[in-house]
Write a structure and sequence with these properties.
The structure is a single chain. The chain has 343 residues and is of the alpha/beta class. It has one domain (3-338): Arginase, Chain A (3-Layer(aba) Sandwich). 39% of the residues lie in helices and 14% in strands. The two termini are 36 Å apart.
Amino acid sequence: MSTGYIYDEIFLKHTLLGHPENHHRLEAIMQQLLTSGVLEWLVRIPARPATREELELAHRPRYIDAVREMAKQGGGYLDPDTYVTRDSFDVAVMAAGSTIEATMAVLRGQVHNAFALVRPPGHHALPDHGMGFCLFGNVALAALAARHAHGIERVVIVDFDVHHGNGTQSMVTSDPGICYISTHQFPHYPGSGAMHEIGSGITRGNVINMPLAAGAGDRTFQTLYEQVLIPATCRFKPDLMLVSAGYDAHHSDPLAGLTLSLTGYAWLTRTLVALAEELCDGRIVFVLEGGYNTQVLACGVLNTFYALLGDPTIADPLGPSPYPEQDISDYVASLRQLHHMEN
């Protein structure tokens, strides 16, 4: 059983001095994979750019052209948080295409599972504008490509980034073959992802948002996965699982406060890998999103590769969260009732 990864040095070219989403994030990851020896266990999948047709699965032509023109003119800002440099259009198109390619490599059986180590991230990008450090919707595009180009009937997207993936949700919410499940800090950027955002019409119930207050911690996530995410995923019966893998819910991340530990993150990833093995022949692809403490980010990605490889090793140099956790039993009951899960 082989684990694939996609990485290309082009992903380092989209960067801005002083911005939290910069090339040092990916450098730290690759150094950790190299020094740990894990890199030599992996199968490298060649990166490739997305085609215009693939980008238009979710993005408006006018927006694609606007990002390309901004880069051509030397760069600028899509919003106060989201920069574009001279190289950003080419890098973002490569990130989108490489996420699709990692997914297709798994679906073609070239590798058993995979991790797309791409940037810029994508889960905040909307059909007609970028935001939250994101230019194009990498995971949403991969899900839609799997549905349209590969004939996959059902895809589950799990998003454990600390921020709600408003862009991903907006791009897939009308597709009855895609289920989007998110845990995220709330109220927090981008302000979306309330519990009662569950989809509508024929896709009602295909969106499962689990907003959390600061300080949620490992036990809270474990309870939500066991009581809500796992039953919902089993009910949907996916043929493929995609994961928006953000490591900014860690207790040492500077931009948020959900207080997971690296051991807690490792439990999440192992649970998702095991769920994919049970439900869809192991077809799961992780895709890099946020994470702004580079030590946490590098170890979190390393632990995810351990999970994909079936290795029990866990790297957690920072230990458990120093903050107390809360009782969420009433909240879980409300979520289960909202999504019609029998007790």
